Amino acid sequence: MSPAVDFRAFHAMAKPSGPDCNLDCAYCFYREKETFYGQAQRHRMSDAMLENYVRQYIESSSEGELVPFTWQGGEPTLNGLDFYRRAVALQTRYAQGRPISNSFQTNGVLIDEAWAAFFKEHNFLIGLSLDGPADIHDACRPTVSGRSSHAAVERALKLLQRHGVDYNALACVGRLSSRDPLRVYEYLREAGVEFIQFIPIVERRPELDEAAQGLKLHGPGGRASGEEVTDWSVRPQDYGLFLNCIFDYWVKNDVGRTFVMNFEWALANFMGRPGTVCHHQPTCGRSVVVEHNGDVYACDHYVYPEYRLGNLAGQSFTAMLDAPAQEEFGRNKYSTLSDQCRKCKVLKGCWGGCPKHRFTTNAQGEAVNYLCPGLFDFFGHLSPYLRALADLINSGRPASDIMEAKLMFVSWK
């Protein structure tokens, strides 16, 4: 039986600058979306669409419910600071007592004193993309002119810290960085980062018809061998080893001081608590993307014409998200699980991962997640520690006590 799904709550991620960016990251899956909107066009959300989006998003939430605005891209700072001043003013106008939050993912290149002060004043949570030391970061994250972006990101980090802005580091894990986990982790720790999220880079090369449309990466769906991924994509087992290596250091030294979201998500799933990222939940479909022109798509990783739900200019969030096709899209994450996944001892930690990555085939001919070997190793490796962490938390003791605890092996329930 499929897990119960609440088809009322949802989350929208706005892309006010569309796919436009001032970096030319090798692994970016979003810049090519300009193919759908015109490559020579400057993509910006209009003031009218901004107001429409803010109003509809707030009105679609329950009274008293937090409305979490997320701004992403492309690079959202390209819209300029005045755009977000207008957004905050509109949120205040339409909130009608509902609490509002704002999160903002950025490469940091344009962050200056004014941006940092604004983020602090309005309690923005910033996700700063920073892959690690300069040689690792710059290998895949140059500017559009081919120059290093690392120093600019470090400058942004220091500004956020000096202004007391809430932030976390988003570190992409590709083939290069996966070989040096402790150097990446120790760099972030020494830079003063307390909250870290490690994002696996997995992209496939396009098929002939996709390449003919101007796409450089394969869309979701279809089967392929692991050899068809790009040469900067992380190898499955290397991703598991990367996380395990950092976890082994963290659990002995940094519990309660550094918060690695991948570990937090695993613990939340183990304890049956909310807060897990979408790809490690049983179902999906309630986190949609709003493009600069008001187009709404089923998911951040599914911005392709066949997954377009409609446009805010003529349709409501409720109508689009509660449509049978979108509800089925969300349920399919669970209903299409392979028998291998359903019998897996770490299913309740992994839940099959992101459906976009289910393109490899097992010996039985079933579609399974490309990252499966690494995810299996990761969740299996954490098993001896999760029960101890859960017991500490449930007994009112700090999780950091685990650094002195004698552990016993347990498995996923």
- Principal-axis shape: globular
Low-confidence stretches: 1-7, 406-413
Q: Determine the N-to-C terminus distance.
A: 17 Å
Widest β-sheet, arrangement of strands: 7-6-5-4-3-2-1-8-9-10
The count of strands amounts to 12
> Describe the biggest sheet?
10 strands, mixed
Overall mean pLDDT: 92
Query: Could you tell me the strand content as a percent range?
Result: 5-15%
Radius of gyration: 21 Å
Question: What can you tell me about this protein's structure?
Answer:
- With 413 residues, the chain is α/β, with parallel strands linked by helices.
- Helices cover 36% and strands 13% of the residues.
- The chain is built from 14 helices and 12 strands.
- Strands 7-6-5-4-3-2-1-8-9-10 form a 10-stranded mixed sheet. A two-stranded antiparallel ribbon has the order 11-12.
- A hairpin with a 5-residue loop joins β11 (360-361) and β12 (367-368).
- α3 (113-121) packs across α5 (150-163) and α8 runs parallel beside α14 (372-394).
- Mean pLDDT is 92; it is low at 1-7 and 406-413.
